[in-house]
Known about the structure:
The chain has helices at about 1-15, 55-70, 115-130, 165-175, 200-205, 225-235, 250-255, 280-295, 320-325, 335-350, 380-390, 400, 425-430, 435-440, 460-470, 470-480, 490-505, and strands at about 30-40, 45-50, 75, 85-90, 100-105, 110, 130, 135-145, 150-155, 180-185, 240-245, 260-265, 275, 300-305, 355-360, 370-375, 395, 445-455. The protein is α/β, with parallel strands linked by helices.
Amino acid sequence: MIRNLTLSLFVLITVLSYGQVAQPQIIPQPQEVKIGTGSFILDAKTAIVYKDKDIQQEVNYLLKSLRDKTSYVLASAYKHKESGRISLKINKKIKDSEYRIDATNKNIICEAGSPEGIFYAIQTLLQSIDSKDGIFFIPSMKINDSPRFAWRGLMLDDSRHFFGKEVVKQILDVMAYLKMNRFHMHLTDEPAWRIEIKKYPKLTEVGSTGTWDDKNAPKAFYTQEDIKEIVAYAAERHIMVIPEIDMPGHATAASRAYPEISGGGTGRWEGFTFHPAKETTYQFIDDVLSEIAELFPAPYIHIGGDEVHYGNQVWFTDPVIQSFIKENDLKDEVGMEHYFIRRVADIVSSKGKKIIGWDEMIASGVTPDKAVVMWWRHDKPAQLTLALDKGFDVIMTPRIPCYFDFVQDNIQKIGRRWGDGKYNTLETVYNFPGSIENLIKNNQKQIMGMQASTWTERIADTKRLYYMIFPRLAAISEDSWTNNEEKNYPIFVEKIRKFYQFLDMKGINYFNIFDINSTPEPWGPNKADVIAEG
Length: 534
Ligand code: TNX
């Protein structure tokens, strides 16, 4: 009794002494935060209260996360009259991904129009938990929040080097924390094909060996079961997984497995293309994409379409291609490439999905009802405006500052820099899309959002992968979620300390911006292997 009383007094004093709490450190910064007085104390008696069965999954996620964080086993109940509860409510008047939090020293109410919004409220709550002297608390506050952009993404190139499903799950955990919702898997490219296709077993039997710097690296790929597991894990975190099968270029691994559908390539880009003038190629692509469409519920399939000119030299002399160009009035090899893209867009469209293509695709004549453009050539802003003028929806991932294979500090020895010496510091990533805001201001609705793209020619292991992704991914999260007026770089930098604690807890490596010498640069190819710029 006495002990209880002392404990209550202690709790009371603690709460009062936190009467005026500083802004909770949340990434991405919510659109509207009003801090009240006092705090909600989180203890073993706190109950999670909810009515809607369709947020059961979110409630479970919250309970587990609270258990991991506080080690309390919290009660969850449909009804709970007293104070000390966190209620989660669906309110149909609130739009899609928006959520509201009203936290007082008695109770916390989270409301959203959908399970997705509830999930974001949960992320905000989890990041708002503070502790002092063994007591966990959440400041009294009112939050009104919704994302600026619908597409808040990360791409991982698993072809050049393969990372596997445990790494992917860790990345998805961090994306969930950052309220990011699109994971783009670049599954095929020169060194290897990384996804099992039942109808064409050689794609992985032959095509999954090797990496960018080791031709003899053993087979490594995702089985269809792995993919199902990843898609389900992502869905629990409200993340859509988008597959990319790159074509007609970057098809080297597929050429190795099935030379009969290869359009060749020369020198460094040997076997780079699919053969664009054979019906068997289109049959192959249709079959492959049927399996892909089944495995990934996303309404998009990324079909690449970039840098075909790197390796299409054989097209200029191949008699089948040359007569195809003549018979179909395609004019030249570029016309051939555009025909290919339109054909594949039709295949994907027949499966009820849209293609996403790198920005070269705009010129192909494919229409905006069948395709979404991914703008990547930062040195060609006209590609962005052209896509918008033609009525395409656009996802932005310009090399500068969204490519995470570029170094993030001058101290780094490995990694890309642009010809003019530019690279992607945390601050330049954070300032996006500031510099191109004027290009998109009249077509805001067509901008689906943005993503970081992690190419892995120079990233050969997990430690280095995380070193390149973190903390920069936190900047992309805030760029894509938070309106410009609420963004503030010095405050963001302070919040990174807390983000690091989260990464530490999960055993994830990062580049330490506060002590740049503290983390030696992890492994990467030693030779300065500069690839041709696209
Ligand atoms: C260009 S981005 C590529 C990739 C490379 C990347 C390296 C794009 C559509 N193509 O194949 O990995 O540069 O930064």
